[in-house]
Amino acid sequence: MRDMPELTDTDELPYAGLTPDVVLNALDSVGLMTTGSLLALNSYENRVFQVGIEQDDGGTGYVVAKFYRPHRWSDAQILEEHAFIAELAAAEVPAVPPLMLCGKTLNAFAGFRFAVARRRGGRAPLLDDPDVLEWIGRFLGRLHAVGSVHAFVVRPALDIQSFGREPREYLLGSGRLPPELQSVYAGVSAQALDAIESAFDIAGGVAPIRLHGDVHEGNVLWYDALTDHGPHFVDFDDARSGPAVQDLWMLLGADRAEQTQRLAALLAGYEDFRDFDRRELLLIEALRTLRLLHYSAWIARRWHDPAFPAAFPWFDTPRYWEDRILEMREQIAAMQEEPLVA
Fold first, then answer.
1. CA-CA distance, 249 to 262, in Å (whole number)?
2. What is the DSSP letter of 58?
3. Under 8 Å between Cβ of 38 and 23
4. Mean of pLDDT over the chain
5. Collapsing DSSP states into helix, strand and coil, what is residue 84?
6. How far is CA 283 from CA 202, 243, 244, 294, 295, in A?
7. Does the global pTM surpass 0.85?
């Protein structure tokens, strides 16, 4: 074991103690023999690393180690995520479950909780190709068929309160908004929430299911091996309950014509495995608006993490908030339009 510095992690600097030696020692502690190779992967909410390990045949391989942000999820919530991924993998839905190490999928070292999975590479999918979208749609249909078998017990739901009202209230009280834009943002965001609530009311009682929660092209990797070809889903950290369309709309693109074409291709595959409730199409722009509200509050909450000012330097500028106000006005208009048809 390498010498390990004393843990100095705090809420203000959540990963201050997560040094390279701590990462490697953590994996050594669960029986993996690390080679010293360590590569930080792109992740803001958690810290994720590709780590070299020695294999039984004398060769070397790689795993991906995910260190969870302190205090975000409870152990029970993380284990429910792991169980969902394992359930998907057992049903041959292409998701990468965490490895069982020391008899469990969630381990801890030096105050950091972590999970390890085999490395599964890939490239971004070609979303302009209808065949690719139909293929992704088939796997999303299968994912949701598994997700609808039973509900999450401890993981939260995607709802207007947690993704809209609470983030808005947090932002208005955070001191991040320029004083001259505070009242404007308050008014426009209130109008946006009214439009969101109206959309959910019109859609009616849409049944929530277990979701991936964050299906965009960065979380769908395409594998091109001769014997293993097609998409697989990564990063279930935002898995929660909600309407099925949440896992579709981020793949649809920008303009309405493109959205209509992509939606048709996705549903052509999706409905091979699960019926899709067309009422959920009324929620696409409402869900997009909730994501925008939640996203700004997410950055504001994490601003003490040094990774965030470095990654989002424009966040603390008046221009950022002017753009968000314009964006919400555009979303209010979009929520008044007729929904997509499929």
1. 10
2. S
3. yes
4. 93
5. helix
6. 9, 9, 10, 16, 18
7. yes
Please list the active-site residues: 214, 235
pLDDT of residue 11: 61
CA angle, 307 then 312 then 317, to 5°: 130
pLDDT digits (tens, 9 = 90+) for 178-231: 999 999 999 999 999 999 999 999 999 899 999 999 999 999 999 887 667 889
**Residue labelled with tokens 């669960």:** 30
With a cut of 70, which residues of the chain have pLDDT below it? Answer: 1-12, 226-227
Total residues belonging to the chain: 342
Distance in angstroms (rounded) separating the CA atoms of residues 29 and 65: 13
* Span 256-273, pLDDT tens digits: 999 999 999 999 999 999
Give CA–CA dist 334/342, Å, rounded: 18
Q: Are 76 and 154 in contact (CB under 8 A)?
A: yes
Amino acid occupying residue 246: Q
**Sequence-distant contacts of 294-303: CB under 8 A, at least 24 apart:** 294/163, 294/164, 294/167, 296/167, 296/171, 296/324, 297/166, 297/167, 297/168, 297/170, 297/171, 297/174, 298/167, 300/170, 300/171, 300/174, 300/176, 301/170, 302/44, 302/45, 303/176
Rg of the chain taking only CA atoms, in angstroms: 21
Which residues are CB-neighbours of 49 under 8 A, at least 6 positions away? 23, 38, 39, 40, 41, 64, 65, 67
Return all residues near 90 (Cβ < 8 A) that are at least 6 apart.
none
Alpha helix segments (H runs only) across 112-165: 130-147, 160
